[in-house]
User: What shape does this take?
Amino acid sequence: MTSQTPEAVHPVRTHHLRQAKERGERITMLTAYDAMVAQIFDQVGTDVLLVGDSLSNVVLGRPDTLAVTLDEMIHHARAVVAATRRALVVTDLPFGSYEASPEQAMASAVRLIKESGTRAVKLEGGRRVAAQVELLTSSGIPVMGHLGFTPQSEHAFGGKRVQGRGPEAADALCDDAMALQEAGVFAVVIEMVPASLAQRVTEILDVPTIGIGAGPYCDGQVLVWQDMAGLGDWSPRFAKRYADLRGALDGAVRRYTDEVRRGTFPGPEHSFAE
Assistant: This one.
């Protein structure tokens, strides 16, 4: 999907992603957690901005995604929405906010949409959450699914492990994907599965797939933006680094600190005359 000039901004909607799949156009998606970053990604032409529960790790410094709350997701989603003109903003329903029942999922999604302005929600799981997805979508709430390695189930998986290996596991994941489509999702994120399985899921689904650690055959790709830009001191194997923002920021802070300590900043050009 192509970017557009500010004078001709047409917001990306869920049906545009399906049309992109039908045309064979790749969908671009990145995480975003604040207004400044969201504005940059939006102006570049990123199709989808995901306010991911990964903010628990990369923004709030926690060891996993499980502790992030619905209030925190709303807070960050509101900032991203405020800075976005074109991209489709999707926000994760955090762990514990939808698993108990379709009614719990509905209450959480309504809060998220009303209080943040997000355009869609994302939740993890296949057949086990199909009833939740069906209630949300039948009520007019767009839902993105998430299969494969689902971070909210990290402890049940025994850590960050590739999913869908072996015939039975692959068949089960395909069944989950079909269940999500039948329940009404507009797209499915596939995380950390063999590339051949992601290709199989992409071929059997009419809705687009968004891969992360799932090979090149998905209809689109998503990365945590800090991994993509090299801001962290570690990134997963599947995350290509397109910049070294950590190195650039390290150098800038060192120069700033040095100039303040030597008394060369602020100089006359940074000061006000009487």
The chain is about 40% helix and 15% strand. The longest strand covers residues 143-148. Strands lie at 27-31, 48-51, 88-92, 120-122, 143-148, 187-191, 209-212, 220-223. The chain has a mean pLDDT of 95.
